[in-house]
Amino acid sequence: MPPVQPVKALISMKGHSARVPRKNVKLLAGKPLYFWIVNELLKAKHVSDVSIETDDDEIEAIANDLFPQLRVLRRPEELLGDFVSMNPLIAHHLDHVEGEYFLQTHSTNPLIRAETIDGAVEAFFNDEDHDSLLSVTALHTRLYWPDGRAVNHDPSELIPTQHLPPIYEENSCLYVFSRTSFAATGLRLGEKPMLFPTPPIESVDIDEDHDFAMAEALMRLRLDAQESQN
User: Fold this and answer.
1) For the chain, what is the radius of gyration of the CA atoms?
2) Which terminus of the chain, N or C, has less C-beta within 10 A?
3) Are 199 and 159 in contact (CB under 8 A)?
4) What CATH number does the domain containing 104 carry?
5) What are 151-199's pLDDT values in tens digits?
6) Parent domain of 182
7) Domains of the chain: total
8) CB burial string 28-38: b at 16+ within 10 A, e below
């Protein structure tokens, strides 16, 4: 793996959202939802370029207004709809963006900080044994299979949960990969992905209304803390 290289950030956003209507442009702490992750990507020292791929006029118009330096790609007709997976969208993105190394994230991860983004990029380039990276949340909790069998603990030994070996949950916040690895697999995860734990407080992924409410509360706490420091 070469020394740390600049990566290009990719964000795909569609206008329709079934569970939280129009969530990508819904206001969170006074800004359209996707403002927050784009703002952090632009602050990250290892991100050289940010591009948005969308099917929606309002998303494009807001991007052109708030972030005129961003590249905006329009989604082709064959990739429209709610059931298109992320990998074909990434393939479309890579057809229109030059470079070898990429970071893919979502508007629905508004609490990820630039420092965490940079940490993920550095971890990717500092490890020669992996060809891609995904962010995860470490779970120190007692988990069970549907049939009642314990996954990661012995029910007869109730040790404190903080001492349990962690189980890692893919949290969809960050993916780092190369054009080469994507070409080999057609997937954002290569053959040897690296797990990168992100802080739980940054790892809220908005799927439902209660996720949006939680992210808004956490963002307002962050903004209040920043204002009190100034």
Assistant:
1) 19
2) C
3) no
4) 3.90.550.10
5) 988 888 888 888 888 899 999 999 999 999 999 999 999 999 999 999 9
6) 7-135+171-229
7) 1
8) bbeebbbbbbb
